[in-house]
Amino acid sequence: MKKIGYARVSTKEQKLNLQVDALKKEGCKSKDIFTEKVSGAKKDRPQLLKMIEHLREGDVVIIWKLDRLGRSLKDLIELVSKFNEMGVGLKSINDPIDTTTSHGKLIFNIFACLAEFERDTIRERTKAGLNAARARGRVGGRPKGLSKEAKSKAEFAAMLYKKRGAEELSILDICKRVGCSKPTLYNYLREQGVKVGKRDRYS
């Protein structure tokens, strides 16, 4: 059995000394300690992957705290589940977690259950919210139709388009007056039931 250490700090300005010294006191040899300076939010943690490749059945991963290993509870549970499949234990120096003992396994299983409960609760709330919205005649997604401001612009655009001949207005002139692009202008006109001539579409 080997004790494999993993230490991480979030920024280059932070020091790893405290974690590394603690890992050595727990019995990790220098050559078996993997360290990196990278934010936990980042997906790429090369030294963590290298450590996992280095693990063998019967080994124990030693860490300073749980937040040094996992980005989130979900991530942590996935990693420990992977360790369990490999026959590898986990011990956190500053948390009551040691999966090599029955007590530590119990606590971690409680964490896993809480995480699953949280996921189920979120799913149920989302489902209930969608059902309530449907009951009120609303569905998920972007609301259809134009806003009040857009409707006013559409009405103004339709009026200008219908008078364009008398006032010698080009499509670009109408766009400038309405304050929109040509594609938006055509959307406004369609919304108002105004048929746009082929010549205007390609002008």
Structure description:
The protein is α/β, with parallel strands linked by helices and 203 residues long. The protein has helices spanning 17-25, 46-54, 73-86, 102-135, 148-162, 164-167, 171-178, 182-191, 198-201, and strands spanning 3-9, 33-37, 60-63, 89-92, 97-98. It has two domains: 3-111, Resolvase, N-terminal catalytic domain (Rossmann fold), CATH 3.40.50; 148-201. Helix content is 53%, strand content 11%. It has a five-stranded mixed sheet, with helices on both faces. Strand 3 (60-63), helix 3 (73-86) and strand 4 form a beta-alpha-beta unit. It is elongated. The chain starts with a strand and ends with a helix.
Topology of helices and strands:
Elements: E1 3-9, H1 17-25, E2 33-37, H2 46-54, E3 60-63, H3 73-86, E4 89-92, E5 97-98, H4 102-135, H5 148-162, H6 164-167, H7 171-178, H8 182-191, H9 198-201
Parallel strand pairs: 1-2, 1-3, 3-4
Antiparallel strand pairs: 4-5
Mean pLDDT: 82
- How does the major sheet shape up? 5 strands, mixed
Termini distance? 78 Å
Radius of gyration: 31 Å
State the shape.
elongated
In the CATH hierarchy, what is the superfamily of the largest domain?
Resolvase, N-terminal catalytic domain
**Roughly what fraction of the amino acids lie in strands?**
5-15%
Which structural category fits the helices and strands?
alpha/beta
Give the number of helices: 9
Low-confidence spans: none
E-strand count: 5
Order of adjacent strands in the largest pleated sheet:
2-1-3-4-5
Order of helices and strands: EHEHEHEEHHHHHH
Helix content: 40-55%
Quote the CATH topology of the largest domain.
Rossmann fold
